[in-house]
Design a protein that fits this description.
This protein is an alpha+beta fold. The protein has two domains: about 5-40; about 60-230, no CATH class. The protein has six helices and eight strands. Strands 1-2-3-4-8-7-6-5 form an eight-stranded mixed sheet. α1 runs antiparallel to α2 (about 20-40).
Length: about 240
């Protein structure tokens, strides 16, 4: 029964033809109600609602692709469907996702391009980057403070350490932006090879509410995501 037919039927029911007895009218009403119920169940009168779609990777500040992996490739690896679950916030989704190339110019005139990706959810932000520096992770640990903890990710030497984010406060009246120390970020440096011959991946997580991040969430992400990054070698 179409919607127009039901509407016509309702009008007819309001003005029953002469001669229709009470039993006939009751039976007709039951058929009419059944038709309306069927349409409601079929979704004809229902307004469909859908949850927000997770953000797709967006290329920003892309100068030239890094080799052997680009910022977009890192973003694709990090922007997984199960990333919220790995973070311990399974009901959330990626609100923003981007991959980019960071250009650095050194004193000797050499230029290097480092890829990175960042995903933002309601509770957490996650960043993944790589570096081709020759310094082993074991040596870098000496510059990261006394709280550094040694770890192993997929057979690769790694170190876990803390850093601080930068807090931005917007003064709408004065048109100024004040900066200051933000919350704690937890980072994991993972050697690019099992022998720690130089170069590393870095995975960092921080919370939007400045609460200290969950180390187990960081380790889960590193163990799950890094093996999917192009160029990763099994330990």
């Amino acid at each position: 029964m179409s919607e127009q037919q039901i509407v016509d039927a309702v009008k007819s029911a309001e003005r029953p033809e002469k001669g229709m007895n009470e039993w006939g009218q009751a039976l007709f009403a039951l058929v009419l109600v059944g038709g309306l119920a069927a349409l409601l169940l079929s979704g004809t009168f229902q307004q469909k609602s859908s949850d927000p779609e997770p953000a797709a990777c967006d290329a920003t500040d892309d100068t030239r692709p890094s080799k052997p992996v680009s910022g977009m490739q890192l973003c694709t690896a990090l922007n997984r469907a199960d990333l919220p679950t790995l973070l311990g916030t399974p009901t959330e989704y990626a609100m923003t996702a981007s991959g980019k190339e960071i250009m650095s110019k050194w004193a000797d005139g050499e230029r290097t391009v480092s890829p990175e990706a960042e995903i933002q959810l309601a509770t957490y932000s996650v960043k993944l980057s790589t570096s081709d520096d020759d310094i082993p992770v074991a040596e870098m640990a000496g510059f990261l403070g006394s709280s550094v903890q040694n770890r192993t990710i997929g057979g690769h030497p790694a170190v876990l350490y803390s850093d601080r984010t930068i807090s931005l406060k917007f003064n709408l009246g004065g048109g100024k932006v004040d900066t200051g120390p933000g919350g704690i970020a937890r980072s994991l440096l993972v050697a690019k090879d099992s022998k720690d011959g130089g170069g590393f991946y870095e995975v960092t997580i921080w919370r939007q509410d400045d609460v200290v991040p969950d180390d187990f969430a960081l380790l889960r992400i590193a163990e799950t995501v890094l093996p999917t990054v192009p160029g990763w070698t099994a330990g």
